[in-house]
Design a protein that fits this description.
Blueprint: H1 3-22, H2 29-41, E1 44-48, H3 55-65, E2 66-67, E3 70-74, H4 81-85, E4 86-92, E5 98-104, E6 111-115, H5 122-134, E7 136-139, E8 142-145, E9 151-156, H6 169-172, E10 175-180, H7 186-197, E11 208-209, H8 210-222, H9 227-238, H10 249-254, E12 255-257, H11 261-277, H12 285-296, E13 301-302, H13 304-309, H14 313-323
Helix pairs in contact: 2-11, 9-11, 9-12, 11-12, 12-14
Length: about 325
C-alpha cells in the first residue's frame, strides 16, 4: 500500500469513528477530536468538567466503536491499589491442594475509565503511574504487562473539591492531553433531550480493532517533521520556563514552573495525527499550535500572582503562541 493510500485509509477510518461517536454524543466536537488524537498517538486523556456533560458517555461510546476490552473504575477515598491492580488469592485446586493465584484487577483492559480520579488517595493514584508510563504493573511480586493497546481515560470534577485529592504533577504529566468539557449550546441541549427522553437510538457500530489501531499508530510515527517545525515546538516549550533567556514575558510574570520534555513530545505526536487527518504527510506550524493548549495546560504551574488575578494556564499559552515566532531560524 502506498503512502497516499495509507493516508486516505487513515482519514476514512478517523472520519468513520467520529461519525459513529457522533451518533451518540451531541456536540463536544473539540473534545471528541482531542480524545481521538490522543488515542491515535498512543496517549492517555484527562477529561475535566462538571457532572452531566457526557465525559463518561464519551469513553463508553469510544469503547463500543473500538473493538477493545473496557473496564471502569469508580475512584473513591477508600479505594485501594489492589482494587485496581489485582491481588493474590488462595485458590483450591481439584487435587485438594491450595495455591496463590493472581486475580487481575480492572487495570488489565485496553481502555480503562478512571472515573473521578481525583477522589482517590495519593497512595491509590500512585498505582496508576507505572501503568500509564510503562504499560505494566508490579503486583504480587511480579511485573505483569498490560494489554496492548492500553489507554487511561480519566475524568475529574473541577468544582466539587470536598473529599478530593489533587493529582500530583508527576501523574498529570503522564496524561497526553487535558481536555476541558464545556456546557452544550441551546441547540445541542435540545438534541440531548431528544436522544435521551424519546425512543433509544441504535448503538454505534464497531469500526476499528486493536491490530488496526496499532497499524494507524505506526503510521503516525512515520510522519516526518521538518527541522524548523520541530524547532517551533521546542521553542514553545522553552518559552514556558520562567527566569530563563527563552522565557516569554507572560511566563516570567505568571508561572512558577514550565512544561516538561513530555510536553514537546506531545506537541509533535499530536501534530502528526492532525496532519494525517487533514490528508497531509508532513507537519505544519498550525498543527503544532492546534494541539498546544491541550498538550500544555496541565504541565504549567501558576504562581500566586496568577491565581490572585484569575489568570489561567490557557491564557498564558495563548499569549505564548502569539509571542513565539513560528520560523526563527534553525538552531546551530
Amino acid at each position: 500500500m502506498t503512502i497516499e493510500e495509507q493516508i486516505a485509509s487513515f482519514r476514512e477510518t478517523y472520519a468513520t469513528v467520529r461519525a459513529e461517536i457522533g451518533r451518540v454524543m451531541v456536540g463536544q466536537d473539540a473534545i471528541v477530536e482531542g480524545t481521538l488524537v490522543a488515542i491515535l498517538a498512543g496517549g492517555h486523556v484527562l477529561l475535566e468538567g462538571v457532572p452531566g456533560l457526557g465525559k463518561t458517555l464519551l469513553v463508553r461510546t469510544l469503547s463500543e466503536v473500538l473493538e477493545l476490552s473496557f473496564s471502569r473504575v469508580q475512584f473513591t477515598p477508600d479505594l485501594m491499589p489492589a482494587d485496581i491492580l489485582g491481588t493474590n488469592l488462595v485458590m483450591e485446586l481439584p487435587t485438594g491442594q491450595r495455591e496463590f493465584q493472581f486475580q487481575k484487577g480492572p487495570i488489565f483492559a485496553n481502555i480503562v475509565l478512571a472515573d473521578e480520579i481525583n477522589r482517590a488517595t495519593p497512595k491509590t493514584q500512585s498505582a496508576m503511574l507505572e501503568a500509564m508510563q510503562e504499560k505494566q504493573v508490579t503486583a504480587g511480586g511480579q511485573i505483569r504487562p498490560l494489554p496492548k493497546p492500553f489507554f487511561v481515560l480519566a475524568t475529574q470534577n473541577p468544582i466539587d473539591q470536598e473529599g478530593t485529592y489533587p493529582l500530583p504533577e508527576a501523574q498529570l504529566d503522564r496524561f497526553f492531553f487535558k481536555l476541558v468539557v464545556g456546557y452544550p449550546s441551546r441547540e445541542e441541549l435540545t438534541e440531548v433531550l431528544n436522544r435521551t427522553t424519546e425512543a433509544p437510538i441504535d448503538p454505534p457500530s464497531k469500526v476499528l480493532d486493536g491490530p488496526g489501531l496499532t497499524q494507524l499508530q505506526r503510521l503516525v510515527r512515520d510522519v516526518p517533521v521538518a527541522t524548523h517545525v520541530k524547532d517551533y515546538a521546542v521553542r514553545l516549550v522553552l518559552a514556558t520556563h520562567p527566569k530563563t533567556v527563552t522565557a516569554a514575558s507572560i511566563t516570567n510574570q505568571y508561572l512558577r514552573f514550565g512544561s516538561s520534555p513530555r510536553g514537546a513530545q506531545v506537541l509533535i505526536l499530536g501534530a502528526k495525527v492532525r496532519a494525517l487527518t487533514a490528508g497531509r504527510f508532513n507537519v505544519s506550524f498550525d498543527d503544532i499550535a492546534g494541539v498546544a493548549t491541550a498538550a500544555l495546560r496541565h504541565r504549567l504551574i501558576l504562581n500566586f500572582e496568577a491565581e490572585a488575578e484569575g489568570i489561567t494556564t490557557d491564557l498564558v499559552i495563548d499569549q505564548i503562541l502569539k509571542d513565539v515566532p513560528r520560523d526563527a531560524g534553525v538552531l546551530a
